[in-house]
Design goal:
Elements (H helix, E strand, L loop, with lengths): L15 H4 L6 E2 L11 H12 L11 H15 L8 E4 L2 H11 L3 E6 L3 H9 L5 E4 L1 E3 L2 E3 L2 H7 L4 E7 L11 H13 L3 E5 L19 H5 L1 E5 L13 E4 L3 H11 L8 H11 L4 H24 L13 E5 L8 H9 L1 E2 L1 E2 L8 E5 L4 H20 L2
Bound molecules: pyridoxal-5'-phosphate.
């Protein structure tokens, strides 16, 4: 059994998560876990660092692509042709390039991962953000609302699956519905699947597998950044079965060759060759336990609700019942816990809490938040 309770002090390690948090504050915000990477990855990195040359890596090498192919076969029972795989500096640049393929405007559901919102809002296109529908506390894509919002200028639909920040792992039927919607309106389907190995319940279904149409009209992106907890060793890939779309995408990629590095390559080999599989399995068990702790806590907190997380380590807490002007600011000031403010995801009355950490850290953060809420509710 791996021990996910031990995390060395991360201050002064150039961690944005910890450096941005004032002294004494527990950072529970950016999607980066307070969990050391798997031992085989650590070992591979030490070994590679010991060699004193760090030249351009050979990222086109077939071996790594073949590992990705084998991984998709094993996890998703699907055949990926190595030619379909295009390396990208990391997933976000991949999304940025994907939305340029069809030139035009984009649509997606909100709440949505903030950097997807930033990329599309900055593309100076009239972006269409449509609210998801809620059944109880759970979020669902609402294609009736999306239909009503459609304009001929929209050329790309962005899916985030598993969905950050609402923690949904979409079913094959839901993804098929998205693909059929895209087919009807002639949209490119861009699917950000960076959290696909962080499924806690259900089965991840890659977008390009749901239909023949989806295969030929989609860009599906993945990486080991989230499951391997190596976002500081950036890399990602796009799976683009359609050769014409792939050619346009590859053109957009020109000039990014020096974004890749040898350390990332060493880590990826270990994360894909099976030597971290047990670690990943136990990590998901740990995250399920932490999710249950957060859910239990929320069930006792009047004024807060959350959707049941099927995936990710991000709890999206709806604080609208608290009557606070700015819930994230409140938790930072009054509880000394830093969470992500909901407004960046287009939901100002929510906050996103990252529970990818030792249980002790999570419990300390929740207990501080509970204390702060008690004081606030009693008017002190
Ligand atoms: C949905 C989603 N896409 C992309 C990213 C960032 O990906 P990368 O660091 O590989 O650019 C994140 C990070 O939190 C994310 O949650």
């Amino acid at each position: 059994m791996y021990d996910f309770e031990k995390c060395p002090d991360r201050r002064h390690t150039d961690s944005i998560k910890w450096e941005d948090a004032p002294e004494g504050v527990i950072p529970m915000w950016v999607a980066d876990m307070d969990i050391p990477v798997a031992e085989p990855v650590q070992e591979a990195l030490r070994e590679r660092a010991a060699h004193p040359l760090y030249g351009y890596p050979d990222f086109q090498q077939k071996e790594l692509k073949n590992l990705v192919v084998a991984h998709y076969r094993k996890l998703y029972d699907t055949e990926v042709d190595p030619q379909w795989i295009v390396w990208v500096p990391s997933v976000m640049p991949g999304v940025t390039l994907s939305v340029k393929i069809r030139q035009g405007s984009f649509a997606y559901f909100v709440p949505m991962y903030n950097h997807i919102r930033e990329v599309t809002l900055e593309a100076k296109q009239p972006v269409t953000e449509v609210s998801m529908k809620k059944a109880g506390t759970q979020f669902f894509m609402d294609f009736a609302a999306m239909e009503a919002a459609m304009t001929p200028k929209i050329k790309t639909f962005i899916l985030c699956n598993p969905h950050n920040p609402v923690g949904r792992c979409y079913t094959k039927e839901e993804i098929l519905e998205a693909a059929e919607f895209c087919e009807k309106h002639d949209l490119l389907l861009v699917s950000d699947e960076i959290h696909c190995e962080l499924v806690l319940e259900g089965q991840h279904v890659p977008a390009f597998t749901v239909s023949e149409w989806a295969k030929m009209h989609s860009v599906t992106m993945g990486s080991q950044g989230k499951i391997g907890n190596i976002p500081g060793l950036p890399l990602g890939f796009a799976i683009i079965p359609n050769p014409e779309l792939r050619a346009v995408f590859e053109k957009e990629l020109l000039g990014t060759m020096s974004s890749y590095n040898v350390m990332t390559l060493a880590a990826y080999e270990k994360l894909y060759d099976g030597s971290c599989d047990t670690w990943k399995e136990e990590l998901r068990d740990h995250l399920r336990k932490n999710r249950d702790i957060v859910e239990d806590w929320v069930s006792r907190m009047e004024g807060i609700t959350m959707p049941h997380n099927q995936a990710t380590y991000l709890a999206f807490l709806d604080c609208s019942g608290l009557g606070l002007e700015n819930p994230a600011e409140f938790f930072l000031k009054e509880a000394k816990v830093m969470v992500s403010p909901g407004e960046i995801f287009a939901d100002p009355q929510s906050v996103r809490l990252n529970y990818g950490c030792p249980e002790s850290q999570l419990k300390e953060a929740l207990s501080r938040m509970e204390e702060a809420l008690k004081k606030y509710k009693s008017g002190c």
